[in-house]
Every structure is written in structure tokens, then in C-alpha cells.
Amino acid sequence: MLKHIFRILGRSDKPVNISEIDPEKVRNILIVRQHNQLGDMLCSVPLFAAIRKRFPDAHITLVASPINYEILFSDINPFIDKVITYRKSPFRNLIEFYKELKNHDYQIGIVPSTVSISRTSHFINFFSGAKIRVGVNSIDDKINSVAYLLNVKSDFEWDTKKLHQTERNLDVGRQINCDLTDEEKKGVMIHLSNEEIKFAEDFINKNFPDKTKPLISLHPGAGKIPNRWKRENFVELVKRLHEKYDCNILITSGLIDKEITDKVRDELKSLNINCVVLENTTIRKVGAVIKLTDLYITNDTGTLHVAGGVDANVISLFGPTHGYEWAPKGDNKIYIQSPTDNINDITIDKVFNESVSLIEKTCVKENTHLKNSQTVN
Is residue 377 situated within a structural domain? Predict the structure, then answer.
């Protein structure tokens, strides 16, 4: 019934001839993406970059849901011109939202359904008035029940092919010839300002004046409990790494991580291992500090993707989520997938051995202080 009604309204799901799209005539593009967790946001940045490359003069608007932490989308996504926040209550907010949406003449509307398929996002996209509406027809064996609201759509087998989230996002854009070369993908990073770099350098110099020791950082927290490797595991891991390298230790922490972070710090101090906690700092400055450390060991959480975005040396731990889908890519990045859905089935030995391998590989490659540090086998 709904499908029939929307056809009556004058916008059928008749396919669009992509070759007829003139980039010079596209002035307004809408992207409806309600998944605003930090990892989701960062993995979608290459899609925005590809859209900007294809339509350099277009005004790009993002429709997003409210988020529960303070971060500006422009902090991590320089390709967005405007953000409209979707709030469905109270009712006047919903009215104001649709008024704002109708203030633009959108030529293209995109729903990059790479995490889940949202009916609401598709209705927003449809009612925006966009003439070309891009999205997914199905994901593996999951059918998009509102695909009739789209006129550019494909069937994707992302899980079958074990594709990364960045590639899933780009696949949606590729339907309208928005793509990046491999080199261009590498260039989509968090580009730090001089001020952020100076903050990180000052922080490191103040807290870790002894540069002869490796600096290992870790993030033992995570917003989702199933994504947390036991704090006891982190403590034992640091104990072993400290015995081998006599290393400096940094812990990153957000508000939701404080309880875990405090316990890890206190337990390390009881072992006479001093560590510094970097907490409640803006995400870009956190990234700048992480970049200056020799290794970042982290659960699957937001700062993992920030570390990947600044090209830090990273080991990431995955339980119920898939490393092939979410872990940052690169020669200096390793993800460890639990053999089960339980992240605590990852052994300390496994993480320790991978840590040693990556530390020695990257420190030798970068000709840093490791050769001068204490190594006890």
C-alpha cells in the first residue's frame, strides 16, 4: 500500500540513468546517516570525500541523530557543510526539522545503510524532495523493506565478502560514480593542526621526560560491555611489557571509562608501575597524543578509530564485533579476533606476543629509542 501511495505522489522507484548526472549541475546533496557513534562516523568519512571529489561545488548536508558525547562532526569530517539534527520529540522539533529539510533543493539524497537499515532514514530522504535517491536494495540476505523509496540501489554481499565498513560506505557511493583511489583512501586521515601537535608534544615532554623508554598507551574501557577485555588482563599485559621494556605507560579515558581506568591505574601503582591518565580531553588532541606513542592497545571503541585516523601503531581487540569490518587498516595495525564471541577468550599471551612484534617492527623501522631501552627476555 505505501509503495503504491508513494508512486502516486510522483516519485516512482524507476531506475536513474547515472551517466546523465552532470556534476556541475548538482548543487545540494543530502546524506541521511543516523548512526553517530564515533567509529561509524569515521568509517563513513571516505564516502564523503568521494562525494566531494565527484561533486566539488555541491553543498553537502548530513542528517544525524543527537549524540551522547560532545564532538563536532567537522572535527573528524571536513567534507560536511551543514548538519541537521533529527529529533522526533517534542513534536515541534519534528515540524522544525522538516521545515529545515525543505529549505534546500536537493538533487541527490543518499542513505548509506552499512550498519542497519532504518525506515526513518529512508522516509527522511524521500520527503527531502531529492530527485535521485541512493541506497541499498539488500545486504546479504536482509531485504530493505523500504527500497521502493530509492531509485538507485543495489544488492550487496558485504558480510559474505567480509568487507570493511569504509568499503561498504564507498560501495553505496560507487553507484553514482563516487569513488577514491587507494592513494586517496590513505589520504583520508585526521589531519592535525599545529596547535594540536604542540599540545601533544608538551603533554609527552611533561609527563614522560625519559625518551629512552618506549611509550605504550592503552584504552581498557569501552562503551559496550561485551567489547571490554578484562581489566585484569590489561594489568597483567602491562606488567609483562614493563618487565621486558621498562616502558612508560599512558592510559586514555573518557567519562564512561573512569571507573575502569581508575582501577587499572591503582592496580598498576600497586605493582610499582607508574602510569599517566589522559582523560576528558578533546578527541583530536587525544589523537595527537596517541600518535606520539609507540603502541596503542585498545578495545573496539571510539578512540580505536581515532588512533587509526592519525596512523598510530595499533593493536585492537575484538569479541562479538568483527575486526575485518571495523579495525583500522595498515602495516602498523594488528587486530586480534576472539575465537568466540567472548572477547576474554583472547589470551594475554597472544596480545603480548603481537605487542612485542609490532613494537620491535615499528621502532626498528622508525629508528627510535627501542634500541637503547632495557630488554629482558
Answer: no
